[in-house]
Amino acid sequence: MEAYLPNGISVEDVITVLAAMSAFLVVLAIWTSGLIKDPMHGRIKHLQGRRQDLKRGYTAPVKRKSPVKRASHLGAMQVIVNGFNLLKNEQAEKFRLKLLQAGYRSKDALVFFMFFKLVLPILIGIVAVVLIYGVGMFDLEPMMKTLASGGSVLVASILPETILKNITIKRNLEMQKALPDVLDLLVICAEAGLTLDSALHRVVKEMAQTGPDLADELSLTAIELGFLPERKQALANLAERVTLPAVRSVTATLIQSEKYGTPLAQSLRVLSAEFRNDRMMKAEEKAAKLPATMTIPLILFILPTLFVVLIGPAACQISSTLV
User: Fold this and answer.
1) What Rg do the C-alpha atoms of the chain give, in angstroms?
2) What is the Cα–Cα distance from 174 to 28, expressed in whole angstroms?
3) Tens of pLDDT, residues 87-101
4) Domain extent at residue 118
5) Residue 190 and residue 195: Cα distance in Å, rounded?
6) Among 37, 150, 184, 248, which residue is least crowded by beta carbons within 10 Å?
7) Which pTM was predicted?
8) 199 inside domain
9) SS3 of 5, please?
10) Signed CA dihedral, 152, 153, 155, 159: sign only
11) Cα separation values, 260 from 254, 255, 263, Å
12) pLDDT of residue 64
């Protein structure tokens, strides 16, 4: 090995350098794992920008940018999407709402989504045609080749919506877990005499680590409560962004409390107890399904091993006796 090394460098030197690099990487990994990362750092920055946008929108005239400047700012994606008028139909509004429900509030998120929804089927279709007809990778009948090409385009067309739906479902599950704790904190803040705006800000501060998604939505709602002309609209926006029935029940309760002046703490306490009861019932339901769920793994993996352990020695003795 020394023959391949430069003059003056031995194998011991190489080993020493590698050991030093390994020690440095280990120390770096330990130091990185020990850092406490705040998941609300980027969210708070985005919400502050949202607050400034709302403030400018209600205190100053809106300055509209020219299409040329917007296209030059967003790049080729904006040009292609605008060329096909994908942002001016009913589907664009539907996808904008779905992006909001998935947590994507950026103005460019809809442009990116519509661009990939347009380009991805074309790209996947070209790749499928090249692989099936050009390269001949799959030995298929002519009819099956046509169906395979069309199926790849169809799958590519619904893939962005499927991914977005899965992200929304996962986000809703995380918010569902944090909702009872949020309601308990809201009850405490309401009983302490805080207003709804102050209570939401306090709850967001306390739930930033354990429920960042729900805290993000509540923080935006608290900002909108201070700037929108109607407080009811801010709560309605929360129900629109979060598709959970529990969150919609909470927003309906808050709207009724704002409208009729009913005690907020008592209503939230009832909802909190109901949601905790539902969560306990779901946990009990999963525990009741566990024996039936474990039956197939038990038969396939555990029982054969148990039979080998119990019957194996006896079978070996019987075979040796017979031989």
Assistant:
1) 30
2) 31
3) 777 788 888 889 988
4) 76-169
5) 7
6) 37
7) 0.66
8) yes
9) coil
10) positive
11) 10, 9, 9
12) 41
